[in-house]
Amino acid sequence: MGLRACPDGGRQRLCSLSQLSPELAVSGPHVQEAGGRLQVAPLPLTDQLNVTIRPDAVRSSTKVGTVENAFLATEETTTSRLLASWHRAGISGVLDDLASGRAADSLPGWARRLVALLTTLVRLPYTASISSPLSVSVPGAPAGAVVRRVAWHPHTTRLAVVLRDDSIRVYQTQAPTVPLIKHRLQRRVADLHWKPHSASLLAVACERCVLVWTLEPNSVITRPPGSCAQTLTAPGHAPVSCVQWSPLGDLLVSASPGDGALILWNVAEETHVPLSRVWWLGNTLCRWSPDGSKVLGATTGQTFRVWETVRWMDERYRGPVSGARMTLPSSLLWTEVWETVRWTDERYRGPVSGARMTPLPSPVDRVWETARWTDERYRGPVSGARMSCACWSPDGQTALFATAGEPVVYSLSFVPILLNDSAPRPVPVIDLTSSPPEADETREARARREALRVGTEIAALSWDSTGRRLAVSFVDCNAVAIFATDLHPHLRITPCGVLRGSVDEVVMDITFQQNLQDTASLCVVSEQMELKQCQVRKFRSFLRKNNEAPFTVKKAVWDSALNASILYSCETWMTGSLKPVDQMYQHTLKDLVGVRYQTPSDLIYVETGIPPLSARVGQMQRNFLMKLQASTHFEGSPVQKAIQLARMHACPMGQYIEKLLGSPHLSSPVAALSEAWSSGRIQQVPMLVSATASGGLLGGLLAAAPAGPATPLRPSASLLSPSVSGASGLASPPANVTGSLMSPVEQAGGRTPGSILSPGGVQLFSVNDSP
Amino acid sequence: MGATAQTAIESFKANIYNSRCAQALLCGIACHLAAYFVAILPLAAINTSFYSVASHWWALLHPTSWLYLLVIVGLTCAMGFIHAAWYSVKPITFSSWLNCMAHLTSKHILGTIASHMVISAFLMRSYLGLFGSTEIANLFVPCQDDKNHKCINEKHLFLVCQAAFSSIFASVSYFCDNRNLVTFPVAQQPLSERLTNVLKGNLWMATMENLQTMKWFYLFYFLHGNWLCGFFTNNIDVAREGVAVDSVFGLLSVTLFLNAFTLGTLSRFVFQMGLSIFETFQTEALTLEVKSTQEAASPMAMTAAMEATSCPLLQHLAFLDFSELARRGADRRAPAFSLSQPGGHPHTFNQLATSSLGQITSLTQRLETALAPPSDNNNSPPVAANKPDFTGLRDLTGGAPPRPAAAPKRSEVAVLLDRLRGWLERRPLLGALLTEWPDSRPAAALADGRPALWAVSGLSALGVASLTEDRYGVAQRHLGPLLRALLELAAVLERVRRLAGCAGRGGGGAPVPRLASGLRAATATALFRLTATFGPHLRSLGLSDKELARLEPYRLYTEG
């Protein structure tokens, strides 16, 4: 192949980070490379975009979440439910509903098996993508990440940023405004790409379509209207996971895990053609080579394909017809496969004599299902692993790619080599596997190993336009490995350093700025997280991986692992603001229950029986102070003196301590709820009731709310007893309501009815599913 | 058009066009028979049972079946010949409803519609005969009361009439909705893949259109079925018996509906697939020799084919190949930058640039003429609009392209007629028929703008490639005129866009707005590429200050 991985390692040795010295693992906001070594830059570069996005300025996407879990289930006919599923998610939604919904219980066994089979068949292309977190979403991007994707304009310093709420902001040097792009079809944005040789066209891969925005560079409009977007849809081509313009800018190619074909669009004329369809696999990735001569498409399976773009030839299975045979010995099936080599020139002229069979070296197992140069199919090097990311060299002759589940970069070179008539084949070139700790490891060796440690799965590859630098980022990791590359006379890769962020950072995306000619500027998008936010991420990861765990287990983890961390030393916070922690507390609580963040927190407190953070922290602080006062060393201590002074002068801290020590025990959620009522925070509930579906519990809160008209509730959903419904005289909560709330989820392990009891055990109202 | 172009056309027809037509015909026949044999299964299920499918297949060995098969093959050939005569590479545009009606009522088109009706009716008769079911196979069947007398089989009559009726809709759509337009594909894929791609869409379209026309035919037969049956019973000694099909109960027959749906869909599908097969074969890209007409070894050189105005298909294929030079490697482009010997003249590039610039400037002039106020139009040569140009007919007759007519001298009668027309246009109903659509003239001018689109992309690609591949500087002389022509074209296209109110978006389903959108995109891309490539040297290209100022936003990527 004419490929040399490392200059000193020869052809057989892979390039790895172990050759680096630990000093080359640098961190800092601005890092520069000089003499092949990374070092911290003293000043930021000139002509640099300064992009700051406040996390609280971005709402979570309301389209992704569902509000169903926030409310009690209502009685609904099977037909209406299936119709709703059809409108929401099409045939797959209906099948899902039949397979897992309440209708499944009423189905006979054979019908359930048939539905399961149909579901499998319909969702077959999605199977691989759903089982992997890389699927349609952004590789390595956690759900709560503020920035999910960035795209540089190929000719100007213009940056499009996809935010968590699926909106896109476009930043530009010396631009008066930052356009904010939203569209009703712009959901679950997975990719975006600027059109080459154009100033204004941006293609966005969305859940149901491809949107092509026309964004005038000199426009002062901050919110381009929907008429500026062109919608491209093809039957069955959804969700779209990747879009790429051709280097000439005349064609656009898009990939979807739900469609076996890549779609080639003529955007201007709104026409499209599918490229050779594979019925049982979807497509996740497409990359156009910079010279426009090839397109690489990765499927949800192990296979990936490379098209040549002159004739878009599809000659995959012509081996037996043309005389070249592919033999698969039974012992070697799927583990070591033989390749059929046949060399033809660019235009197909039929079989060329000299076809021969060559075994591929073990242990790399790959299938070479090719009969000719064009539109070849390759099987990934690892069984069961699919291509996760790829990039082309600037000359379009070499593609680098990585597969899911292993930190190895492969190369596929299309450089014709004299006296070598074999077709191109993937060759591992970079091994980023971290070395395991040794038994007698010294402290220096451990520090060196830790400094060069990177992730276990590659998230993105980016090659700069000069072909001299390659950046590799990892899933759930704060490191970016930088390599120096040389394309001529053949590919050489040398480790350059590791760019490491702070501990609480996760690299989301990497991309080289494309409009630089002689230099390169790597843009690393990382999610800045406080240390406490890391715990939130861990907890969300736990929830994702243990979705089926019982609620009590999840709550125990939430209490013991998360709260212990985010409320660490909260006894000393006193008058400090609880807002940052409260947001984490509320969000993780809603993650725990499985509702969206817009659900009123009071509902969740009542539903789960968990007190609000203010009550919880107040109780802990009160306990702390009581314990402190009871200790023998308290009298005469500086702390006692400080507290006494504060209470005497009635400063805010003193008032707070006074209130804290004088307040009753607030451990129960109903007490906290009572406090919330008295403070009037519960007034927001009626408005939300009117905006969403109704439920019995909501109705109860509505009746108890101090203000707001009683929103009419659906008879089938509102299960208040008439006596309670008529008790609208409860303008304020009874002062003596200190009874306990039986947590519904604790009662039955699901969203089942709950009740609020009065002190004497008299049921004020009940909430039940059944009338 | 010179002699070399005429030679190229003859060579094209002899070596390529006829061969592709024959291949398309064979493929069409195979597709037709395959579709019928697939449709036998639902037909058998509708009429008898699955058990009888084997007997139907067995019946194919009977000589009568061979005859029907021959008839089907012959009718397929007839449809192919009709399409080969009426296909066009230029979309049809109309200036008003009256113009559309006048177009449809011309004798040639009426004759073709009648031919379609006859072919469809005979095709349906052959389907029924080949299928062999006793219930619907024959027009005359023995009467149930008296076996010696014959009665008319109304279901058979219904199905045959439905095929003829449906063909009227298909023909009107063929001539007015640009179904005869040969469109060039987005990507040059293999033939089998292109045919596979259109299969599903054609089946869906045939099904939907058949259902649409069936409802009208049911109404028609309910009203006039008695007259149709009466025609046979009055003129031939046959009788009617049983439930009349033109009654409510007769029309509610499920078997009849399923037969009409299946066979009607099959007929429509075969018609649509025929068009797609012809288009697929004829739009396969050619790889032409990039040499000047003096040097080319092949009579069908690119330079000669680009001048073949009397054979638009060849001209389109030549410009398509020219635009593909951008995608090909430097080896394919090298002859364009070479010098002719003896003398060392850049004949090849000159001829390519002249042909391409001619297309661009010609389109610009036509658009400017179309956008000019009507008062100026009276003295200017009329745009070759509103007159459909059927490529196939021209190919058959070998006629020269229509020359722009000289400006007629307006007589008093013409002035009076104009006044009369103006008065009629102000009438409520007549006005809707007579009023000219506001964007009809630019649309007519744009209709044959496809070669200009390819010329823009091809010439700009050669211009960009000349920076590294043009060793003799043969392309430099044409860069200034090219940029000037592109600026003018961009300006006039912007005026067209504003007139059409497209607001920067690709047009809907009509081919002309799509073409306009494609032209705008190609022109903008070409300007961006050329200005980015030759940015520092633009002042050396002989452009005026005003033109340089218009190019500046493209160079800085601030043009939207």
Automatic annotation (TrEMBL), chain A:
Phylogenetic lineage: Eukaryota, Metazoa, Ecdysozoa, Arthropoda, Crustacea
GO cellular component: nuclear pore
UniProt name for this protein: Aladin
Domain of life: Eukaryota
Domain Aladin seven-bladed propeller positions: 145-318
Pfam family name, one: Beta-prop_Aladin
Originating organism: Amphibalanus amphitrite
UniProt record, GO biological process: nucleocytoplasmic transport
Region (Disordered): 731-771
